[in-house]
Amino acid sequence: MNTTNSISNQKLKWRVFNDKLFSIVMMTLAFISAVPLLSILYQLIKKGYKQIRLNFFIEVAPDTMEAMMAKVNHEIIPGGIANGIVGTLVIVGMASLIAIPLGLITGIYLSETSKGKMANIVRFVVDMLQGIPSIVLGVIAYIWIVKPVTSGFSALAGSVALSIMMLPSIIRSTEETLKMIPPTLKEAALSLGVPYYKTVLKVLLPTGMSGISTGIILGISRIAGETAPLMLTALGSSAINLDITQPSSAIPLLVWEFYNDPNLIDLIWGASLILLLIIFLLNIVAKAISKKWKVQY
Amino acid sequence: MKSERLFQYFLKLGGVLILMVAIGIVTTLIAGSIPTFKEFGLGFIFSSDWNPTEGRESYGALPFIIGTIVTSILALILTFPFAFSIALFLGEYFKKGRMSSILKSMIDLLAGIPSVVYGLWGFYTIKPIIVELGLNAQGFGIFTSAFVLAIMIIPYASSISAEVINMVPSNLKEAAYSLGATRFEVVKNVIIPNAGSGIFAGFILAFGRAIGETMAVTMLIGNSNNIPTNLFDLGNTMASLIANQFGEAEGLKYTSLVAMGLLLFVITGILNLIGKMVMRKFTA
Predict the structure, then answer these.
(1) pLDDT value at position A297?
(2) CB A226 to CB B115 under 8 A?
(3) CA distance, residue B84 to nearest chain A CA (Å)
(4) Residue B1 banded pLDDT, cuts 50, 70, 90
(5) From the CA of A240, how many Å to the nearest CA of chain B?
(6) Does A110 contact chain B (CB < 8 Å)?
(7) Which residue of A has its CA nearest to B117?
(8) Could you say which of B113, B151, B272 has the minimum Cβ distance to residue A128?
């Protein structure tokens, strides 16, 4: 009796030990994933913060000669990333103008049509669009816009590529948010004789606004850092350019340009840091909206 | 009544437009790659010669297909222990509370970092370490890019898996606990068998992401047009090749790059489809 007891005791200890070991290993592995994040942030902040002065926001990127001269004279490299900031605003703004209305309409359509062949096909297609690699969308925008429409690289082509990237997140968040609104709300409006379109526009949309705008902002933050599709479409430009039929720069494109130019390479840190700050800020805003303006029914 | 119909048609128009965009993408890619497939046939996929010299032009996608698959699979293997731990952490061990919200915001931040910044980090932080360890003379190559890719896909792999693990019915877990099972035994015998296919789906979707990643890989893989012979060899991926060579491409080279885009589209599409189909089982 005693021996069996001690055996089962040992077995129990072994099981408890295994359990403890597993939790420790799991938690360690989970938090090790923070190391790269901290390392990236540390590197960007340490090397980038010095470059962020006022000039960095209002001057365009220096050309390689200017930068070389400054380096030879041991001066700070002149110039900034104003062309990139304006370019990103223009390209992302245009992409949003294309994607938001279409995304909203499609999202409402899907939430209002839960069954049906057409709606299911559209859902499938949205899933498919979400999985397309961004570089392939760059190729598409090149064929659709760069060659026939603007006959040359253009900000517009970049916007088209990014707008397709943005669509799935807007459509999904719109559909899912609207589906969560209790049907009684809609029924109440309809029973008061409010026309269907007014019910959707003035009751459902405002109620779901926080969820929908969260989706839109997350969509914007997803495309703001995209580089690959812009390399094939917007190409880059050394001047500030507001004409959407002309090539344009963008912050991620500038990072790529600086990386490839030994004279400008010191500027990558400031540019990346600003890009990262913009994206993180968008994420924080999205989170704040979804937390603060959660409509209670 | 009439306005109602009209509005419904208007909504449907959005769906139709999305459909047209998708059909447009597929037909554009197919039409654009016809000259390449006419010239090389299926040889485009199985040939390993990428030679733009005029007169002796020959384009084969095999080195890039292999480079893509090897890099992505390696990334998936490297990401697994971390993403799975995070998923268990968020989906089972700490569903709420400060610890989980810290980890969650960390994952969100990781997901937000642009590809090009990951590339810089790989170049300035990981590459010197690889050189230091003597794994590879220049520090570029399949392993370096797979390592950075592994970190990039942690958010994708872990968030879906966490969701699925969270969905395992609590009465199953409670039954196991009441029989005296430890938490580890519950994970092993209840959670993994129940959530296994969902976790699999999460990793498949992350795999699709890794295959389509461009910038970080371009900056780290070494861009060689040969079939890699070992994990520390230089290589190239399909996405990275398009990014590098599309700008100046014309004629057969241009259509071959479009064909490469088509292949990339098909591969990621199939992976996505598998992932979504497995996931649907859970949400339905």
Answers:
(1) 53
(2) yes
(3) 8
(4) low
(5) 22
(6) yes
(7) A272
(8) B272
Residues 229-248 of A with CB under 8 A from B: 231-232, 235
Tell me the C-alpha to C-alpha distance, in Å, between residue A100 and each of A167, A168, A173, A216, B18. 7, 10, 12, 7, 13
Confidence of residue A266 (pLDDT cuts 50, 70, 90): confident
Q: What is the mean pLDDT of residues A5-16?
A: 84
Q: What is the pLDDT of residues A107-137, one digit of tens each?
A: 999 999 988 899 999 999 999 999 999 999 9
SS3 assignment, position B77: helix
Return the structure tokens found at B257.
């790059």
For residue B237, which of B269, B208, B260, B254 has the smallest C-alpha distance? B260
Q: Which of B106, B107, B213, B214 to mutate to test the interface with A (most CBs of A within 10 A)?
A: B214
CB contact under 8 Å between A195 and B239, yes or no, is no
Domain boundaries, chain A: 82-292
- pLDDT tens per residue, range B124-142: 999 999 999 988 888 999 9
Kindly list the residues from chain A whose CB atom is less than 8 angstroms away from the CB atom of residue B211.
133
Among A26, A44, A25, A24, residue whose Cα is nearest residue A36 = A44
A223: closest chain B residue by CA: B114
User: Tokens 């390689």 label which residue?
Assistant: A64
Q: In the predicted model, what is the mean pLDDT of chain A?
A: 91
**Apex CA B129: angle with CA B124 and CA B133, to 5°?**
155
Determine the pLDDT at residue A76: 79
Nearest CA in chain B to A126: B18
Q: What's the fold here for domain A82-292?
A: MetI-like fold (1.10.3720)
* pLDDT greater than 70 at residue B284: no
Distance CA B208, CA A129 (A): 13
Beta-carbon separation of A128 and B243 below 8 A: no
Strand partners, A248: A235
Q: What is the pLDDT of residues B166-208, one digit of tens each?
A: 999 999 999 999 999 999 999 999 999 999 999 999 999 999 9
What residue type is B71 in one-letter code? T
Question: Burial level of B77, CB count in 10 A (0-12/13-18/19+)?
Answer: exposed
Tens of pLDDT, residues B223-248: 999 899 999 999 999 999 999 999 88
Strand (E) or helix (H) holding B75: helix B62-88
Cβ pair B88:A26 closer than 8 A = yes
